Task: inverse folding
């Protein structure tokens, strides 16, 4: 499994990543995208993102590698970073 994270300082909030791979990326009410672990909603009980830039490294399965790569390439803020397994 590879891992992905978003630098929120660079995120423009376009949400393209969430459209491309909604199981990996989620938009928050703060207008920024966040990563989430598989099977996780990405939000706590108050609706706030669980993961931030400093601890927001999320694993994703190999079958989503192409889609996550596409999300990173299409991102206008160039804020999605992938760490290959």
Result:
């Amino acid at each position: 499994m590879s891992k992905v994270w978003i630098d929120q300082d660079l995120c423009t909030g376009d949400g393209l990543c969430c459209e491309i791979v909604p199981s990996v990326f989620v938009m928050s009410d703060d207008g920024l995208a966040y990563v989430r672990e598989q099977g996780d909603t990405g939000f706590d009980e108050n609706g706030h993102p669980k993961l931030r830039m400093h601890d927001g490294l999320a694993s994703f399965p190999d079958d989503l590698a192409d889609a996550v790569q596409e999300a990173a390439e299409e991102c206008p803020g160039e804020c999605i970073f992938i760490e290959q397994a």
